Every structure is written in C-alpha cells, then in structure tokens.
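[scheduler] slot 2 assigned
[scheduler] job type: sequence-to-structure, two independent chains
[scheduler] chain ordering preserved from manifest
[runner] begin chain α
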Amino acid sequence: MHMPRAEKIWLTVGLLTMFAFAVVLGVFAFVMGAQPPSDAQAMDPTKVSQTPPFNQPGLKKLGPNNYVADMTAFVFSFAPNRLEVPVGSTVTFNVTSKDVVHGFELVGTNVNMMVVPGLVNSATHTFTQPGDYLILCNEYCGTGHQLMAAHLIVK
C-alpha cells in the first residue's frame, strides 16, 4: 500500500508525541512519586458507625485555628450537617461513606472528593473569608440526591 510522504511524516510526529507523553507521565508517576491524594485508610463500610473517629462524627480542635472534621456520608445526608469555625481556620476533612458512592464538594473552594464506601478521603482547606460554605454531594447517589447538603459556617 502506498502512503504519501506527508502522511508518513505526520504519522511519525504523532507517534513520537504519544511516546513523549508516556515518558513524561511515567516520570511524574513513578520517579517523582506523584500519587492521587488520600484513600490511604480503609475500613469496613458496614461498621462505620462503630469505628472511631466516625462513631462520633464532628469537629475537633487540634490547636489554635486548626481543626479536623470527621464526617460520614449516607443516603441522603452528611453527619454532622452543620459545622462552625472562626475565620483563618485550617480544617482537614476526613470523610467516608456508610452505603454508596457519594461526592463531597465544598462550594467556593478547591475541596472536591469522591467518597467511596470502605475508604477514608481527606482534604485540607484554610478559610480566610467569613461566610456560609455549602457542602454538596456531587455524585448521584439516589432519588434524594438533590437534598444531600451540609453547611460550614465561618465566623
């Protein structure tokens, strides 16, 4: 089969580009140790309510302006569904699911994670502006999905 010279050139350029992309991806993934965040802690999703710290979900103060929020997601709610922190606080969110895959999006921030049963997902954010931050489930989880929300009040 005859192939025009220009087509051979573009085919070669395309293959070299794909190879270069694979090399760069490999360097970042393996040599530099880039890994997706969290999902480092696993648990039995049927025992979330008995497993610390999720047996008593809530906000815990670790130090001045430093908090950890242990939260559970379940059809169709978050526990706790209301949190309050002062302006300037850094909050680490540890979230797990009791039943199905949920989402955890803190509207107006870069906190956005998938909450998978059996895995604990974590994200940290510093709140420099006061306001009512809405926490939404952004993964369809059933017929009451649109009702699944919580609030973080920054005063």
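[runner] end chain α
[runner] begin chain β
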Amino acid sequence: MAQPLLQARIDIDASPEAVWALVSDLSLMPKWSPQCKLMKAFGPLRPGTRTVNVNRRNYLFWPTSSRITEVVPERKLAFRVNENNTVWSYELEPTATGTRLTESRHAENGVKPVSNLLVNTMMGGVPNFELELVDGMNASLSRIKAAAES
C-alpha cells in the first residue's frame, strides 16, 4: 500500500533566496535528485507550466510529464506527475541561521493503479521503492545544502 506522504527535511545555512534559486531552477533537478536525469520546463516557472522528465533506476529509464501546481517565490514549489498523480513539493521556511527545506511527495488520492502495478513488477514493490524515494529525497536535500552553503 502506497504511503500518502513521503517527506525529508534539512536545515541549510543559507538564505531562503539562495535556496530558492537552486530549487526553482528545474534544469538543476538532475544535479540534486539521484533518480531524475532530465526535467525540462515548457515555459516560465508558474502554475500550469508543463515539464517533461526522464527518470532512472539502475538500467531502467522511464519518461514522465508533470505540471507546475504552485509557485510561491522563496516559499514553495510544487508539481503534479501526470503518470501517477503524485505531487512533489519543496517548501522553504526561514530559520534563525538560514532555511529549513522540506521535500515531499504527496499521494493524497493514492497512486494510480497502473503506476503501482509497474512499481510492483519492475522495481521490487511499492514499500521498497518508497524507501528508495525517501533515500533519494535525503540525498537531494544534502546536495542542495552543499551547493547553497558553498
């Protein structure tokens, strides 16, 4: 059974403006995410903008598409993946020493059955894949932190 919410967070010693510059540049997503190999936006960063994405796990590659659902500069960026109905988001919160960055994957209406079938068949099952996604979130946040603090 897919979890409705997967999440990771990290504190970064950099301003929300500096962190926003990194997470809001979708072309940088492959630099942060171990699974994302391409994220190409077709238009400016605003709700409704579509993206085409390529993901990779070992020798398996798969395309997805998404639509930006929320943009609040220096606060939140979110997009819905069309193939599985999940919403990925980055939320920034100012702290005394910089920024708390939270990455989430919401599946409040569940993941599409075809997506779960493919994950169960090709990727070792939903629970394992979701653990891998959280590990990937933690890796992404660590990479964003290193870039923002350098």
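[runner] end chain β
[qc] chain β: The chain has one domain: 5-149.
[scheduler] slot 2 released
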